[in-house]
Amino acid sequence: LFEFAPAGWLAALGQLRPDDRVWMIDADLSATVTTSTDKVIYVDDPEPWLAMIELQANWDGDLPYDLIRRHSLLLHRHRLPVSCAVILMRPEANSSGMIGHFPQRNPLGSPWDFPFTVFRVWEQPVDTFLKGPLGLLPFAPISQIDRADAPRVKSIIQGRLATEATRSQRDVLRAALVQLLALRYDKQEIAFWSDMMATLDISKTDLAEMFREEGRLE
Fold first, then answer.
1. Which residue intervals of 83-149 are DSSP H helices?
2. Pairwise CA distance, residues 205 & 214, whole Å
3. What is the pTM of this model?
4. What number of CA atoms fall less than 13 Å from residue 137's CA on the CB side?
5. d(CA 24, CA 165)
6. What is the pLDDT of residues 59-112, one digit of tens each?
7. Is-contact 154 146, C-beta < 8 A?
8. pLDDT tens figures, 98-133
9. Do 157 and 195 form a contact (C-beta atoms < 8 A)?
10. What is the 3-state secondary structure (H, E, C) of 155-215?
């Protein structure tokens, strides 16, 4: 989804840039350490910099430590300033530690802070995702949405998928929508959105196999 709209995500984080000045690059960290940060956003400003963005659906007490590690590896690898942002996709991923900085005690000198941006999807206006690039669309149903507004949101998503996305893009966006809806809604509520996925066959995907395996275990 970030590759669909790196400039759109940067704008959502308060850094508006033209599309031709923002793109994804390989983080090139896999040879050094196992990390979920496989790609980062390159911002072609007069003084270029990188945006490292982490998506979180569940609480992770190790995340602040992982951010420092990945930040340091990116600095060492690319020798560019690196900004960090954490995208929390549901309240279950939130914690008292998600305050935008990670205080560091330093017995040999002055204490210091490791700063990072916290972006809580459920607190963002739904139009941030509805009116942005296609890559932001699947996040609309899990943003700050009033249930009475759901039909309008659904209609806009359907319309944009039909008129702006290629067939392959629609499949990717609908598959993402399936997974994101499961973060917030129960079975009955998901059924309301289900006709947007009517042409998507996920029966042979890893996601479907995971659901089948969980069903067998249950």
1. 126-130
2. 14
3. 0.81
4. 27
5. 20
6. 888 888 999 999 999 999 999 999 999 999 999 999 887 888 999 999 999 999
7. no
8. 888 999 999 999 999 999 999 999 999 999 999 989
9. no
10. HHHHHHHHHHCCHHHHHHHHHHHHHHHCCCCCHHHHHHHHHHHCCCCCCCCHHHHHHHHHH
